[in-house]
């Protein structure tokens, strides 16, 4: 089966997702990247239709649809999270004309089995990616990111498992995923990409697990698993992951201000990130997203 997976919204620029207890743009990738890896391990062909940066919402949406329509897909799946001022909860799936596709119904019922309220199959005819994709399509609103009850239930691995089972009838573990046993490949996921190895990467992995962004091997090797679990961080953030970013910047030669690695993403850290991004020929938005994480991993000394 040939399936297009779209991790909804961008990581930077226009079309950034909703923000609640956690950021939608991060969560769509935590779940979506796992879905992609699981489907591939099961032998399915997966086209990643995700767009990480765009100059406008229309550009973001049209790029996703173009990837899908140029790939002769059997099915297109867009993964999202909902938000409504903390007042709503549960899971819903959108299809064209509220068509009760068997796979859409299965995905919905599977996610609901995790304890979420069933909000039903809904009409997604007005949604750009549903209206314009030529393949059968669905948009999954996994749960509400601004509802405490929903987010207390959330586990990216379990959510991905239920989506995959709904799509193809069964699931599988991600190669090398979540293990600290020291098996081959560690957090690189076996034969996946490796972006760097350093003690600061190990510190980051510990923080990722501690803060609930993933459950990954703590081996100091930055592979796809570590990259996929690394959250987007911007000015105003604070905590252990911000502190690791500051240490990485200092290690590479970019001072973060007079307070050093204090765990607070202020103006000094933002200036350092922008300078690092410019030197790496990245968009200098001051936000540590997927491509900036890759560059940090690769440049550690």
Tell me what the structure shows.
- It comes from Clostridium oceanicum.
- Residues 65-168 form the MurNAc-LAA domain.
- This is N-acetylmuramoyl-L-alanine amidase.
- Pfam families: Amidase_3, PG_binding_1.
- This protein has 301 residues and is an alpha/beta fold.
- It has 2 domains: 2-168, Aminopeptidase (3-Layer(aba) Sandwich), CATH 3.40.630; 186-299, PGBD-like superfamily/PGBD (Muramoyl-pentapeptide Carboxypeptidase, domain 1, Orthogonal Bundle), CATH 1.10.101.
- The protein has 11 helices and 10 strands.
- It has helices spanning 24-41, 57-69, 102-112, 128-132, 148-153, 156-168, 199-211, 224-229, 240-252, 267-279, 290-299, and strands at 2-7, 12-13, 45-48, 53-54, 75-82, 91-95, 118-123, 136-144, 194-197, 221-223.
- A 6-stranded mixed beta sheet has the order 3-1-5-8-6-7, sandwiched between helices. A two-stranded parallel sheet has the order 2-4. A two-stranded antiparallel sheet has the order 9-10.
- Helix 1 packs across helix 6 (156-168) and helix 7 (199-211) packs antiparallel against helix 9 (240-252).
- Mean pLDDT is 89; it is low at 175-191.
